[in-house]
TrEMBL record:
InterPro entries: DNase_I (IPR016202), Endo/exonu/phosph_ase_sf (IPR036691). Gene3D superfamilies: Endonuclease/exonuclease/phosphatase (3.60.10.10). Residues 1-24 form the signal peptide. It comes from the Bacteria. The lineage of its organism: Bacteria, Pseudomonadati, Myxococcota, Myxococcia, Myxococcales. This is Deoxyribonuclease I. PANTHER family: DEOXYRIBONUCLEASE (PTHR11371), EXTRACELLULAR NUCLEASE (PTHR11371:SF31). Keywords: Hydrolase, Nuclease, Signal.
Length: 287
Protein backbone atom coordinates (compact mmCIF):
# COMPACT_ATOMS: atom_id res chain seq x y z
CA UNK A 1 0.00 0.00 0.00
CA UNK A 2 1.34 3.39 -0.92
CA UNK A 3 1.34 5.96 1.90
CA UNK A 4 -0.04 9.44 1.30
CA UNK A 5 2.64 12.03 0.74
CA UNK A 6 1.96 13.83 4.03
CA UNK A 7 2.51 10.54 5.93
CA UNK A 8 5.73 9.90 4.08
CA UNK A 9 6.88 13.38 5.03
CA UNK A 10 6.06 12.69 8.71
CA UNK A 11 7.96 9.40 8.65
CA UNK A 12 11.04 11.11 7.23
CA UNK A 13 10.90 13.79 9.92
CA UNK A 14 10.67 11.17 12.67
CA UNK A 15 13.54 9.17 11.17
CA UNK A 16 15.70 12.27 11.12
CA UNK A 17 14.73 13.28 14.64
CA UNK A 18 15.53 9.97 16.35
CA UNK A 19 19.30 10.02 15.64
CA UNK A 20 19.54 13.65 16.71
CA UNK A 21 17.94 12.80 20.04
CA UNK A 22 20.38 9.94 20.53
CA UNK A 23 23.34 12.21 19.77
CA UNK A 24 22.20 14.78 22.35
CA UNK A 25 23.41 12.63 25.26
CA UNK A 26 27.08 13.15 26.05
CA UNK A 27 29.81 12.59 28.64
CA UNK A 28 31.61 15.41 30.41
CA UNK A 29 35.05 14.02 31.28
CA UNK A 30 36.65 15.74 34.26
CA UNK A 31 40.17 15.40 35.69
CA UNK A 32 41.57 16.65 39.00
CA UNK A 33 45.34 16.68 39.48
CA UNK A 34 47.84 17.96 42.03
CA UNK A 35 50.79 18.76 39.77
CA UNK A 36 53.43 19.08 42.52
CA UNK A 37 54.88 22.58 42.43
CA UNK A 38 54.17 23.03 38.73
CA UNK A 39 56.31 25.84 37.36
CA UNK A 40 59.29 25.45 39.66
CA UNK A 41 62.57 24.88 37.82
CA UNK A 42 62.41 21.08 37.91
CA UNK A 43 58.62 20.97 37.40
CA UNK A 44 57.99 22.30 33.89
CA UNK A 45 57.08 19.10 32.02
CA UNK A 46 54.15 20.73 30.25
CA UNK A 47 54.09 18.52 27.15
CA UNK A 48 54.33 15.32 29.19
CA UNK A 49 51.63 16.61 31.54
CA UNK A 50 49.41 17.28 28.52
CA UNK A 51 50.04 13.80 27.13
CA UNK A 52 49.12 12.23 30.46
CA UNK A 53 45.89 14.23 30.61
CA UNK A 54 44.83 13.58 27.04
CA UNK A 55 46.00 10.04 26.32
CA UNK A 56 45.58 8.35 29.72
CA UNK A 57 42.06 9.34 30.80
CA UNK A 58 40.52 6.32 32.52
CA UNK A 59 41.74 3.46 34.65
CA UNK A 60 43.61 1.40 32.04
CA UNK A 61 45.74 1.79 28.93
CA UNK A 62 42.87 0.91 26.58
CA UNK A 63 40.48 3.60 27.85
CA UNK A 64 39.29 6.14 25.30
CA UNK A 65 41.56 9.16 24.98
CA UNK A 66 40.45 12.66 25.74
CA UNK A 67 38.95 14.84 28.46
CA UNK A 68 37.00 18.09 28.63
CA UNK A 69 37.72 19.79 31.93
CA UNK A 70 40.83 19.73 34.16
CA UNK A 71 41.18 21.11 37.69
CA UNK A 72 44.70 21.69 38.99
CA UNK A 73 46.30 22.20 42.38
CA UNK A 74 49.86 23.35 43.19
CA UNK A 75 50.32 25.69 40.24
CA UNK A 76 53.17 27.87 41.44
CA UNK A 77 53.27 30.88 39.11
CA UNK A 78 51.35 32.62 36.35
CA UNK A 79 53.59 31.29 33.56
CA UNK A 80 52.28 27.74 33.96
CA UNK A 81 48.76 27.92 32.59
CA UNK A 82 49.50 29.59 29.22
CA UNK A 83 52.21 26.98 28.63
CA UNK A 84 50.04 24.06 29.71
CA UNK A 85 47.03 25.22 27.68
CA UNK A 86 49.25 25.54 24.62
CA UNK A 87 50.75 22.08 25.18
CA UNK A 88 47.33 20.50 25.62
CA UNK A 89 46.06 22.22 22.47
CA UNK A 90 49.01 20.82 20.50
CA UNK A 91 48.69 17.31 21.92
CA UNK A 92 44.91 17.05 21.56
CA UNK A 93 44.31 18.97 18.35
CA UNK A 94 41.47 20.94 19.99
CA UNK A 95 41.62 24.39 21.58
CA UNK A 96 41.98 24.74 25.36
CA UNK A 97 41.59 27.81 27.54
CA UNK A 98 42.02 28.34 31.27
CA UNK A 99 41.14 30.40 34.35
CA UNK A 100 43.38 30.75 37.36
CA UNK A 101 43.25 32.32 40.81
CA UNK A 102 45.80 34.66 42.31
CA UNK A 103 48.51 33.10 44.46
CA UNK A 104 46.83 31.97 47.70
CA UNK A 105 48.32 31.16 51.12
CA UNK A 106 48.94 32.60 54.58
CA UNK A 107 52.73 32.57 54.41
CA UNK A 108 55.37 33.27 51.77
CA UNK A 109 54.50 29.83 50.33
CA UNK A 110 51.51 30.28 48.03
CA UNK A 111 49.75 28.29 45.31
CA UNK A 112 47.41 28.97 42.40
CA UNK A 113 44.26 26.98 41.63
CA UNK A 114 43.46 26.60 37.94
CA UNK A 115 40.94 25.08 35.55
CA UNK A 116 41.57 24.07 31.94
CA UNK A 117 38.65 23.54 29.57
CA UNK A 118 38.03 22.55 25.96
CA UNK A 119 36.42 25.49 24.24
CA UNK A 120 34.37 23.24 21.93
CA UNK A 121 32.66 21.29 24.74
CA UNK A 122 32.78 23.52 27.84
CA UNK A 123 31.70 27.09 28.48
CA UNK A 124 33.24 28.74 31.54
CA UNK A 125 30.51 30.68 33.35
CA UNK A 126 32.59 31.96 36.27
CA UNK A 127 35.72 31.36 38.35
CA UNK A 128 36.01 32.95 41.79
CA UNK A 129 37.79 32.43 45.11
CA UNK A 130 35.68 31.58 48.14
CA UNK A 131 35.49 34.44 50.64
CA UNK A 132 37.07 33.30 53.90
CA UNK A 133 36.93 36.24 56.36
CA UNK A 134 37.45 33.94 59.35
CA UNK A 135 40.63 32.53 57.76
CA UNK A 136 39.54 28.93 58.20
CA UNK A 137 41.53 27.70 55.21
CA UNK A 138 45.19 27.94 54.28
CA UNK A 139 44.11 28.08 50.65
CA UNK A 140 40.47 29.09 50.30
CA UNK A 141 38.88 27.09 47.46
CA UNK A 142 38.32 28.07 43.85
CA UNK A 143 34.64 28.02 42.82
CA UNK A 144 34.10 27.23 39.13
CA UNK A 145 30.80 27.20 37.26
CA UNK A 146 30.70 25.60 33.80
CA UNK A 147 28.20 24.56 31.15
CA UNK A 148 28.63 21.37 29.13
CA UNK A 149 27.71 22.83 25.77
CA UNK A 150 26.59 19.61 23.98
CA UNK A 151 23.86 19.07 26.62
CA UNK A 152 23.38 22.44 28.31
CA UNK A 153 24.05 20.86 31.73
CA UNK A 154 25.50 23.24 34.32
CA UNK A 155 27.86 22.21 37.14
CA UNK A 156 29.59 24.01 40.00
CA UNK A 157 32.97 22.68 41.14
CA UNK A 158 34.81 23.45 44.38
CA UNK A 159 38.55 23.04 43.71
CA UNK A 160 40.33 22.68 47.05
CA UNK A 161 43.83 21.79 48.27
CA UNK A 162 43.65 21.18 52.01
CA UNK A 163 46.46 22.18 54.34
CA UNK A 164 49.11 19.54 55.04
CA UNK A 165 50.41 20.92 58.34
CA UNK A 166 49.52 18.80 61.37
CA UNK A 167 46.74 16.25 61.81
CA UNK A 168 44.89 18.77 64.00
CA UNK A 169 45.15 21.49 61.33
CA UNK A 170 43.87 19.12 58.64
CA UNK A 171 40.98 18.14 60.90
CA UNK A 172 39.93 21.77 61.36
CA UNK A 173 39.87 22.47 57.63
CA UNK A 174 38.01 19.30 56.68
CA UNK A 175 35.44 19.86 59.42
CA UNK A 176 34.73 23.31 57.96
CA UNK A 177 34.51 22.44 54.28
CA UNK A 178 30.79 21.75 54.72
CA UNK A 179 30.27 25.50 55.20
CA UNK A 180 31.81 26.12 51.79
CA UNK A 181 29.75 23.39 50.14
CA UNK A 182 26.49 24.64 51.67
CA UNK A 183 27.29 28.27 50.88
CA UNK A 184 27.95 27.43 47.23
CA UNK A 185 24.81 25.31 47.02
CA UNK A 186 22.61 27.92 48.70
CA UNK A 187 24.10 30.63 46.49
CA UNK A 188 22.32 29.37 43.37
CA UNK A 189 18.64 28.72 42.77
CA UNK A 190 19.29 27.29 39.31
CA UNK A 191 22.27 24.93 39.74
CA UNK A 192 22.24 22.25 42.44
CA UNK A 193 24.99 20.11 40.86
CA UNK A 194 27.83 20.95 43.25
CA UNK A 195 31.00 18.80 43.22
CA UNK A 196 33.92 19.09 45.62
CA UNK A 197 37.25 17.88 44.23
CA UNK A 198 40.99 18.34 44.71
CA UNK A 199 43.74 17.14 47.04
CA UNK A 200 42.20 16.87 50.50
CA UNK A 201 45.11 15.27 52.37
CA UNK A 202 42.76 12.86 54.11
CA UNK A 203 40.97 9.63 53.22
CA UNK A 204 37.19 9.80 52.77
CA UNK A 205 36.80 7.42 55.71
CA UNK A 206 38.18 9.96 58.20
CA UNK A 207 35.85 11.09 60.98
CA UNK A 208 36.61 14.72 60.09
CA UNK A 209 34.24 14.46 57.12
CA UNK A 210 31.18 13.99 59.37
CA UNK A 211 29.91 17.54 58.91
CA UNK A 212 30.12 17.43 55.12
CA UNK A 213 28.57 13.96 54.86
CA UNK A 214 25.79 15.06 57.21
CA UNK A 215 24.43 17.79 54.98
CA UNK A 216 20.98 17.29 53.48
CA UNK A 217 20.69 15.76 50.96
CA UNK A 218 23.60 13.51 51.98
CA UNK A 219 27.00 14.27 50.47
CA UNK A 220 28.94 11.15 49.52
CA UNK A 221 32.49 10.44 48.44
CA UNK A 222 32.66 8.92 44.96
CA UNK A 223 36.38 8.12 44.99
CA UNK A 224 38.57 6.86 47.82
CA UNK A 225 41.49 5.02 46.22
CA UNK A 226 45.22 5.50 46.77
CA UNK A 227 46.34 8.36 44.52
CA UNK A 228 49.62 9.58 46.03
CA UNK A 229 52.96 8.01 45.10
CA UNK A 230 56.07 7.38 47.16
CA UNK A 231 59.54 7.80 45.68
CA UNK A 232 59.58 4.13 44.64
CA UNK A 233 56.45 4.58 42.53
CA UNK A 234 54.08 2.81 44.90
CA UNK A 235 50.58 4.13 45.56
CA UNK A 236 50.17 5.13 49.19
CA UNK A 237 47.33 7.42 50.31
CA UNK A 238 43.77 8.19 49.21
CA UNK A 239 43.81 11.99 49.22
CA UNK A 240 42.18 13.01 45.91
CA UNK A 241 38.39 12.80 45.93
CA UNK A 242 35.06 13.72 44.38
CA UNK A 243 32.26 14.59 46.82
CA UNK A 244 28.68 15.24 45.65
CA UNK A 245 24.99 14.82 46.46
CA UNK A 246 23.58 11.88 44.50
CA UNK A 247 20.12 13.43 44.80
CA UNK A 248 21.25 16.30 42.61
CA UNK A 249 24.20 14.98 40.60
CA UNK A 250 22.20 12.31 38.79
CA UNK A 251 24.67 12.63 35.89
CA UNK A 252 27.38 10.72 37.79
CA UNK A 253 28.63 7.82 35.68
CA UNK A 254 32.06 6.73 36.95
CA UNK A 255 35.24 7.84 38.70
CA UNK A 256 38.69 6.45 39.28
CA UNK A 257 42.43 6.97 39.17
CA UNK A 258 43.87 7.70 35.75
CA UNK A 259 46.17 5.11 34.24
CA UNK A 260 49.89 5.72 34.83
CA UNK A 261 52.12 3.62 32.59
CA UNK A 262 55.35 3.89 34.60
CA UNK A 263 54.82 5.06 38.16
CA UNK A 264 58.54 5.39 38.97
CA UNK A 265 59.19 7.66 36.00
CA UNK A 266 55.93 9.50 36.69
CA UNK A 267 56.76 10.33 40.31
CA UNK A 268 60.31 11.31 39.38
CA UNK A 269 59.38 13.76 36.64
CA UNK A 270 55.67 14.68 36.79
CA UNK A 271 54.02 14.47 40.20
CA UNK A 272 53.59 12.54 43.42
CA UNK A 273 49.82 12.42 42.75
CA UNK A 274 48.13 10.53 39.94
CA UNK A 275 45.32 12.39 38.19
CA UNK A 276 41.83 11.23 39.11
CA UNK A 277 38.87 11.25 36.74
CA UNK A 278 35.12 11.75 36.85
CA UNK A 279 32.62 11.03 34.05
CA UNK A 280 29.24 12.78 34.03
CA UNK A 281 26.57 11.66 31.53
CA UNK A 282 23.54 13.67 30.55
CA UNK A 283 21.28 14.64 27.70
CA UNK A 284 20.09 17.93 29.20
CA UNK A 285 20.35 20.14 32.26
CA UNK A 286 18.59 18.29 35.09
CA UNK A 287 18.31 21.24 37.52
Amino acid sequence: MRLPSFLLHAVVLVALAVPSLAQAASYLRVVSWNLRHEGWTAEQTYTDDAKQLWTQFGSNSTSNNGCDLVFLQEVMNTDVMPALAQALTQVSGVTWNYAQTPLIGRSSYKEIYAVLYRTDTVSLLSSTVYSDPSDLFEREPQIVKVRHTPTGADYTFINWHAIWGTAAERDVEVRNIDTVFKSVQDGSTSDQDVILLGDHNMACTGASWTELAGLSPAVTCKLDVASTLNTSGGFVSAYDHFWMQATYVTEFSSSGRDYVANTTDFVTRLSDHAPVYLSLYSSSDTD
